[in-house]
Design a protein that fits this description.
Blueprint: E1 4-6, E2 11-14, E3 25-28, H1 31-39, H2 46-63, H3 68-83, H4 90-105, H5 112-142, E4 148-153, H6 168-177, E5 181-187, H7 194-205, E6 210-213, H8 218-223, E7 229-232, E8 236-238, E9 243-246, H9 249-258, E10 263-266, E11 272-273, H10 290-293, E12 294-295, E13 298-299, E14 312-315, E15 322-325, E16 328-330, H11 334-342
Parallel strand pairs: 4-5, 4-7, 5-6, 7-10, 8-11, 10-15
Antiparallel strand pairs: 1-2, 2-3, 8-9, 9-14, 12-13, 15-16
Helix pairs in contact: 1-2, 2-3, 2-4, 2-5, 3-4, 4-5, 5-6
Bound molecules: the ligand CSC[C@H]1O[C@H](OP(=O)(O)O)[C@H](O)[C@@H]1O.
Length: 346
């Protein structure tokens, strides 16, 4: 089941707000449709958001009806709209910058159809790169996984968070493919329940043993010695290794540290933001209080109770054992070792 699929004049998106009950697709035919799908988390997950926004940029160019001279100004508006959807995942901005660079490199191309073709090709490259990098990342991460391991993960960093295969769950898939005896504990991940609705569903689709737990059970599981390692995804990694990921990740990292359990972040290098010195500068998205006060329209709290709903938190680098990327596993000190790994081919 593909997270997203380019159809030549539209982008088909698996509507993740309907999972696991229904597998429903939406066809986005404009950059505004794509922006809405990202904002409403019908597609979510840092790499998936980046690739989706890249196709949204291409859709903007396809819909443009003015002169060649007016295209660049129009595309600035398209890019701004897509950039405004969600602030934390750096992959969104990284992907849109690749599309803007492609447009700039095509400034001498007069034929609008040719420019559009170049933009679609770049979006395809971003999507293809993600598929390829996740498999490389999975192999690097597999080397860290014992022959028999119980892996705790948080949120969804699987196929549904990427174009395919996943990052944290990419490591799980690579370990299973290598014949290792893997079981996964999946945090439900309130309030949006990516773990319960997406990770549990995705792993069961692949026949990978998964046990769903409520977020508040992770510490007890570790205390019982039932977790061998923790692997999570990431939305933005600062130059010093501080990592923004789904809310609740920081708590898991501190618990893993207390229990002496390795805590890994799995992410493509496109998630590393070297311009951001430390985690304190990472913008944290706050979402509607309704996501906490209700579940699928059913009130679970007083309708007028004030809510604080940060969608992400930042885990300090000191709690992160290693960062698994398509170019290899990075160990601390991250500020030094990122520079070494970024120059490696992938
Ligand atoms: C493969 S990175 C996925 C990353 O994105 C998720 O956030 P959201 O579901 O709000 O887009 C979560 O932080 C995952 O770890």
């Amino acid at each position: 089941m593909k997270t997203i699929e380019w159809l030549g004049d539209s982008l088909r998106i698996l509507d993740q707000t309907k999972l696991p009950v229904e597998s429903v697709y939406l066809w986005t035919k404009s950059y505004e449709d794509v922006a809405g799908a990202i904002e409403h988390m019908q597609v979510r997950g840092a790499p998936a958001i980046g690739a989706t926004a890249a196709y949204g940029f291409a859709l903007g160019a396809l819909a443009y009806e003015g002169s060649r001279e007016g295209l660049d100004a129009y595309m600035e508006k398209v890019s701004a709209r897509l950039e405004s959807t969600r602030p934390t995942a750096v992959n969104l901005f990284w992907a849109l910058r690749r599309m803007q660079d492609t447009l700039r490199e095509a400034r001498s191309v007069e034929d609008l159809a040719e420019v559009r073709k170049l933009l679609v090709q770049e979006a395809d490259k971003i999507a293809d790169d993600d598929r390829r990098m996740n498999r490389l990342l999975g192999e690097h991460g597999n080397a860290l996984v014992p022959p028999k391991a119980a892996i705790l993960t948080h949120c969804n960093a699987g196929s549904l968070a990427t174009v395919d295969y996943g990052t944290a769950l990419g490591v799980v898939r690579a370990a299973v493919a290598a014949g290792k005896e893997i079981k996964v504990y999946a945090d439900e991940t309130r309030p949006f329940l990516q773990g319960a609705r997406l990770t549990a569903w995705e792993l069961m689709q692949d026949g990978i043993p998964v046990t769903l737990i409520a977020d508040n059970m992770a510490g007890f599981l570790m205390q019982q010695g039932k977790v061998d390692l923790v692997i999570v995804g990431a939305d933005r990694i600062a130059a010093n290794g501080d990592t923004a990921n789904k809310i609740g990740t920081y708590s898991l990292a501190v618990l893993a540290h207390v229990h002496g359990i390795p805590f890994y972040v799995a992410a493509p290098t496109s998630t590393i933001d070297l311009k951001m010195a430390g985690g304190q500068d990472i913008p944290i998205e706050e979402r509607a209080g309704k996501e906490i006060r209700e579940f699928r329209g059913i009130p679970v709290a007083p309708a007028d109770v004030p809510v604080y709903n940060p969608a992400f938190d930042v885990t300090p680098a000191k709690y992160i054992t290693g960062i698994i990327s398509e170019k290899g596993v990075v160990s601390p000190p991250y500020s030094v070792n990122f520079l070494k790994i970024m120059v490696r081919p992938s």
